[in-house]
Specification:
alpha/beta, Rossmann fold, 7 strands, 43% helix
Length: 269
Amino acid sequence: MFVPLEGSWALIFGVSSGMGKETARALAEAGCNVIGVHFDLAEGQQRAEQYAKTLGGLGVEAHFFNRNIAAPRARAELVPVIRDLTSGVGPRVVLHSVAYGTLTSLLPAQDGQEEEAPEVTRQQLTMTVDVMGHSLVYWIQDLVKEALLPRGAKVFAMTSAGGTRVLSGYAPVSAAKATLESHVRNLAVELAPRGVAVNAIRAGTTITPALAKIPGNEKLIAHCQGINPGGRLTRAEDVAEAIVALSVSDSSWLTGNVIGVDGGEALVV
């Protein structure tokens, strides 16, 4: 059974760029109102505010909030706002698309290596896993406590191939993605009696601001573009379309998975 998204609500973390931004557009085009949370400085905040107005031009409500999603204070402030905006129903779609963490190695660079790679600190590792992994759990906990995760809701978390592979300078984020996927599995089981589906979306190599920060991204882009069976890199629009398609189903039986949206890239890497 399929349920129209028109008039429902989406809660998107990381709404100001990349997958979050494009998914907000696709959901808005499907008639879904958007509550967006992002973490930007002044210039980025202005762009986000303008984007919210652009979404509003599609005939939906769009409310963006510039907050650190890993901070307890942000949840304390925004959960009541979510309740009010959704008239106590809660969001039908929740997307965790957060790319904020430290990119470095676990150990210091050895003599003779071309690039210096400082070892990760305890603070950096803890912060990265907390923001990109554990924050999903904290938000779901609060939404459930306030009865703001209705039956039929869909929860998506953006992961990457780096969660199971070793990429240079990606170690802390890799740990965060592995943690995130573990949380997805456990949340899927614990939310199953409530009729809520939880899945991770593993996008193929996509040119986003987050990708641009990964050391050696140029080589990665060239390699993946050359091997992708579809003859191109993944686009944020591909991911957004998949999330919309999965969100219109009223079934909660597709849950606990890592769903590849990559044109078959992972099959040939």
